[in-house]
Every structure is written in structure tokens, then in C-alpha cells.
Amino acid sequence: MTVKQYMLDKIKNGTMHAALIDPDKQPAEKAAEMAKTMKEAGTDIIFVGGSSGITKENLSATAKAVKEATGLPVVLFGGTPDSLNKELDAVLFMQIVNATDPVFITFGQVAAAPIMAKLGLESISMGYVIVEPGMTVAKVTKAKVVKQDEIETAVAYAMACKMFGFDIIYFEAGSGADRPVPPAMIKAIKTYVDLPLIIGGGIRTPEAAAAAREAGADIIVTGTMLEKGASVEEIKAVISAAKGN
Ligand code: 1GP
After folding, report:
1. What is the spatial distance between Cα 147 and Cα 153, in angstroms, rounded to a whole number?
2. Could you give the C-alpha distances from 130 to 50, 147, 205, in angstroms and in order?
3. Atom of ligand 1 nearest to the CA of 200
4. Which of 131, 140, 203 to mutate to test the pocket of ligand 1 (most atoms within 8 A of CB)?
5. The total number of structural domains that make up the chain
6. Is the pTM of this model over 0.70?
């Protein structure tokens, strides 16, 4: 089964949780331990990647260790063409739709495509939209961020993603954001655009996770919470609220 099919099957039955692990932040053994904790707490899939410091070495070692420790699909979310490797189960092949640096709109993807083809990696096409505050990823990509109250603009971006033919869309407030993507924005996107919706950035409490799920998020991503050493109980509470169980 493809990773895309795994995701589509899961979200048919409710919201999924994805754990984001940045290979640049810890050795692979530690990443494997973190992923194991996340799996025990109920996470469904592991995203690996980050906005900077991703190399073929740290990415492949982390992907391999995480897969061995959990058996969960390991998907690249944010990397560089030369970090691509065979340990990945799939790549979220994304266009940062509101970036203004063309490397993140087209040229990076053009560089990555032949490498992905050569490695035989599964591609899941994704429109990625950065919402205020946007954090590091907004700076790196020089994004024209969607403000928290610009609901119509957010819907227009989601509509454009649908018309481009992306498999999936991701609305991102940025890793470590002090405010997640607002539930009203999530609700409006899901009202007008029929595409699987990933939400991430700044979700660290069960309340925020439940609000995103109730508003219609299909996949909720958390990263910082784990890096900052949240307890297993705290992680479990956030994942349960994200999945509604
Ligand atoms: C970042 O959406 C992810 O790309 C996760 O954000 O680190 O704030 O959980 P956090």
C-alpha cells in the first residue's frame, strides 16, 4: 500500500496525528526513542525534516532508526534535494504556495524530481501555505504570510491548491508558533475545499488539538512539544485530543 493510501484510509475514520522529528536536533538513536514514545501515545505517522541543517547523513540515519523502532511510515517533510535517500517511505512533495523565493515554489522541486525518480520514492503532492506568525519557515522562504484574520485569503489559497491538483494541503503557523492556525480558518477551508487538510505549528495543548480537530483538520502535526521534553502523559493527552479518542 502507498503511504498516500494509508493516510486516506486513516482520515476516513477520523483525524490522524503526525509526529514531526527534526533530524538536525538530536542523534538518530534519540530520534528513535522519541518516535517510540509517540507511537505508544497513539501517533499514526512520522514526518521527518526541518527548515535548515538537513543532510543526507542525518536524514537517512534518522529515517532508518525511526522506522526500525516504530514500523510507522516515515515521510519527508521539508528537506533539500541532496538529502533525499532510500530510507524514506514517501516525500511530501510540496510547493510553498505563498513563498516569494522561487526556490520553494519551483526550482527546488525541479532539482528534486529526477533524484526522487531515480530512488523510486513515492511523491505525495502538497500545497503548503504559511499562516502568521510563520516563524523560521516564513523567513527562510520569504513567505507572504496569511494573517490570522484573513480567512478569505486562506480559502482562496486552498481553492488554488485544489485547482492545481495537489493531493493534500497543509496550513502551517510555523514550528514553535505562539498561536496555531485559527479554528475559524480551518472550518472555512474545509467548508469550501474538499481536500485532506494538515494543520501544524504551535499545537501544544489538548485544547488546541481538540479545537483543530473539531474545526475539521484531517491531520494534526506536533513537533516542538516533543523536543521540549513534554512528559508521556502530556503527549498522550494532546494526541488523544487530536484524534478525538
Ligand atoms: C512545524 O507544523 C509543524 O512545521 C509543527 O509545529 O513544532 O510548533 O509543533 P510545532
Report:
1. 9
2. 14, 9, 21
3. 2
4. 203
5. 1
6. yes
* Nearest CA among 200, 223, 240 for reference residue 49: 223
By residue range, what is the domain housing residue 109? Answer: 3-243
Nearest to 185 by CA among 218, 204, 212, 210: 212
Q: Which domain CATH number covers 12? A: 3.20.20.390
pLDDT of 205-237, one tens digit each? Answer: 999 999 999 999 999 999 988 878 889 999 999
Helices (H), 84-231: 107-119, 135-141, 151-164, 183-192, 206-215, 224-227
The tens digit of pLDDT for each residue in 82-97 reads 999 999 999 999 999 9
Spatial separation of the C-alpha atoms in residues 70 and 82, rounded to whole Å: 26
Does the C-beta of 108 come closer than 6 Å to ligand 1? Answer: no
